[in-house]
Amino acid sequence: MKRLTNKYLLFSIIAALTFACSPYQKALKSEDTMLKVRMIDTLMKKEKYGKAIALFDQVKNKYRGTDSAPDMALKYAEALYKDRTYILSANQYERFTTSHPRHPKRDMALFMAAKSHYQMSEVYSKDQRDTKIALAKLQDYINVYPDGEYVKEANVLVDELRTKLDKKAFEIARNYHHRERYIAAIESFENFILDHPGSTYQDDAHFYILDSQFEYGINSVATLVPERLELAKNYYNTFARRFPNSEYMEDANEILEKIEAYKPETEL
């Protein structure tokens, strides 16, 4: 048992010495800037971005104001992005676009700054602050470089983020409906229809506003039921006209039948 313990201890010492004398550790401790830069290139190729960043932090200021500064800045931003340190990569790419406004890779940097924000966008059920920032940044890129190399990808990302915001807004409104808060649901769906005109949830919103108005009307005091059902009928007409092939059409027709079958208490 003692021999086994000593064996493991020896292995630990050897491993520690090997690590301490590794090329990376030598570069990290060295005063030789070029050695650090060569090691950065090696680490980037091996996708060891965290270690590369540690070396970048030691040398980046030494290149400030030199001809190599732009390339070094872009390489640093790339390492941050691939290390998934997106807030820092966004800042680094944005700083590059400001510092090098005429650089041939400025369009790439502007796009990657926006894409860094895109990567920070949360799932639709969470706060969408980063989604809105990413949308604005992507739109900035598209506006500045309408024929740019990354416009096609930027448009794909824009569509994805807009769909996420659409779903967020739609689910908020539908949650009011499911909790039987019909007035709030109607208002939310009306706002959704106005604010998200190109959304794939437009027919869903129109159907749920119809259903919300019907439920609100049929459960009102008797004297208010007719006028509220009449408004529901108007919502039905709008829905049927705009979305005649909707998956909700059968449900909408059932609601219309209930509206038309309703008899005020005075006629019972």
From TrEMBL:
Residues 44-222 form the Outer membrane lipoprotein BamD-like domain. This is Outer membrane protein assembly factor BamD. The keyword Signal applies. Pfam families: YfiO. NCBIfam families: OM_YfiO (TIGR03302). Residues 1-27 form the signal peptide. Keywords: Cell outer membrane, Membrane, Signal. InterPro entries: BamD, BamD-like, TPR-like_helical_dom_sf. The keyword Membrane applies. It comes from the Bacteria.
